[in-house]
Amino acid sequence: MKLNEIRDNQGARKGRVRVGRGIGSGLGKTGGRGQKGQKSRSGVSINGFEGGQMPLHMRLPKRGFNNIFAKDYAEVNLGAVQKLIEAKKLDTSAVVDHAALKAAGVARGGKDGVRILGKGELTAKVSFKVAGVSAGAKAAIEKAGGSVEVIEVVPAAEKAAAKKGTAKAAKKA
After folding, report:
1. Which residues pair with 131 in a beta bridge?
2. CA distances (Å), 102 to each of 30, 58, 110, 138, 155, in order?
3. What is the residue extent of each domain of the chain?
4. Residue 48 and residue 56 in contact, taking contact as beta carbons nearer than 8 Å
5. What are the beta bridge partners of residue 128?
6. Most C-beta atoms within 10 A of its C-beta, which of 3, 70, 130, 153?
7. What confidence tens digit (pLDDT) does each residue in 131-154 have?
8. Using CA atoms, how far apart are residues 21 and 60, in angstroms rounded to an integer?
9. CATH fold of 93-154, please?
């Protein structure tokens, strides 16, 4: 047996169906869509339509709402930060910010920055530069001899919009 002679077993892979390629194929003319009607036309998507009956997504009760102004923070507990310091994955001499926590693998997501929460113990002296901090976490950090600077994080989409706005203003002037 040679590598260039290896083949799949017969019938393991099914060839794609070429629709609308003549009578002999069995899927010519109407292409397996039947005759006329909405579903025989192209570009028609009627997912969720139940023939006029009230669709399931409308019959089910709705609860709550989605706040479009909610901030998306990556939440990091003090205990997790302490573990990273003990594992030498975080440098305490430098300022710990979103980038440092992300590189250490503890801050996932959080397009609006990082928020430090007070769960766990912090014994190391660390200075943080983050988007938010809980009152308990701030007290624990300062008790350990560290400091916290709360900054305003501007998401990339807003930065781009602000740049466009300034460019338009400069053109008008």
Report:
1. none
2. 55, 41, 10, 20, 16
3. 93-154
4. yes
5. 96, 148
6. 130
7. 999 999 999 999 989 889 898 877
8. 44
9. Ribosomal Protein L15; Chain: K; domain 2 (3.100.10)
